[in-house]
Amino acid sequence: MKKERDYILGTHEAELNRLKLQHQIWRPHVLAAWQKAGITIGSAVLDVGAGPGYATFDLQDIVGRSGKVISVERSKKFVDHLLQHADKSQTNVEAYELDLMEDEIPTKNLDFAWCRWVACFVHSPKLLVQKIANCLKSKGRVIFHEYVHYESWQLLPPNKHQKQFINEVIKSWRAQGGEPNIAAFLPEILHQHNFDIVSTKPLVFNCTPNDYFWQWPESFIEINLIRQVELGGVSQQWAEEVLESFRKAKSNPFSMQVTPMVLEIIAEKQ
C-alpha cells in the first residue's frame, strides 16, 4: 500500500470539511473565472491538485456527458472521497493519485486546466507549469487562483496576534518549500513555457463578522493552529492566545477583515 501523502494542514475529516466550506465561499468567483476562460459543455478539463473533488464536481456538471474532467491529487484519502462522491450517473470523470512534482500526468490535448492554491505549495512552480502545458492542446487555457500578496490579510482594527499568525504561516509554508506569493512570478513563468496571458484580476475582499466570507479565514486559523501545535511549530499557549484574540475581534461589531490577495490568471498555450 502507498503511504498517505499528507499536507501542511493534513487530510483528516476536519480539513476535508474546511476545504468544502472554502470551495462554497469561493464558488461564485470560481464559476465566473471558468466562464470567462470559456469552459462549457463538451470541454475537456484538467483539475490540478483536485483535493477532495469539490471543483471536480462542479466541472463535471458544466462539461456534461460530452466532456470530461481529469483530476489529479496526491492524497489517497482525497482521491477516494472524490471518486465516492462524483456523479455516478456520468462517466466523465477520471481521477489519478499522483505527485505533481514526481509523476507524469497521464493525459494530453485537453482544452483547459484549473489550478487553485497548488503552485504556492510545490517546490518547483516551473515544473508544474511545464506539466500543465504538456497536457493542453494548442490554444488550450489554464486558469490559476494563487496568492499574490499574502501579507495583505489583516484584521481591522489592527491585531498583533493576527499579524504574528500570518508570519508563522508564511515561515512554515516556505520551510516546506512553497512560496505563498507565487502569483507574483507566475506570468513570467507562463511566458517562459509558451503561454500568453489572456487576463489577470486581483481578488481581495473586505468582510465583517456577519459575512459568509469571514468563515473562510476563520476556519483556516482554527485548523492551522491545531496543526502547527501538533507539528511542534508553535506552543499551545501562543495558539490559544491567537484564537482568543481572533474571537474577541469576531465579537466586535466594528471589526473588519481584509482577505489575503489572490490573483486570477488566465493564460493560453501558443
Briefly say what this structure is.
Helix content is 41%, strand content 23%. By secondary structure, the protein is an alpha/beta fold.
Side-by-side strand order of the widest sheet: 3-2-1-4-5-10-7
- At CATH level 3, the topology of the domain at 13-149 and 177-205 and 260-269 is Rossmann fold
Note the gap between the termini.
Answer: 40 Å
Overall 3D form: globular
Order of helices and strands: HEHEHEEHEEHHEEHHEE
Task: Note the quaternary state here.
Answer: single chain
CATH class of the domain at 13-149 and 177-205 and 260-269: Alpha Beta
Q: Note poorly predicted spans.
A: none
- Number of distinct helices: 8
CATH superfamily of the domain at 13-149 and 177-205 and 260-269: Vaccinia Virus protein VP39
Q: For the report, how would you describe the main beta sheet?
A: 7 strands, mixed
Structural class: alpha/beta
Mean pLDDT: 93
- Number of beta-strand segments: 10
Task: Estimate the helix proportion, in percent.
Answer: 40-55%
Strand composition percent = 15-25%
Using only C-alpha atoms, the radius of gyration works out to 19 Å
Query: What would you say the CATH architecture of the domain at 13-149 and 177-205 and 260-269 is?
Result: 3-Layer(aba) Sandwich
Model description:
The protein is an alpha/beta fold and 270 residues long. It has a domain at 13-149 and 177-205 and 260-269: Rossmann fold (3-Layer(aba) Sandwich), CATH 3.40.50. 41% of the residues lie in helices and 23% in strands. The chain has helices at 13-37, 54-63, 76-85, 125-135, 160-175, 186-192, 215-230, 236-251, and strands at residues 44-48, 68-73, 93-97, 110-116, 136-149, 154-156, 195-203, 206-207, 256-258, 261-269. The strands form two sheets. A seven-stranded mixed sheet has the order 3-2-1-4-5-10-7, with helices on both faces. The longest helix has 25 residues, at 13-37. It starts with 12 loop residues before the first helix and ends with a strand. 37% of the residues are buried. The mean pLDDT is 93.
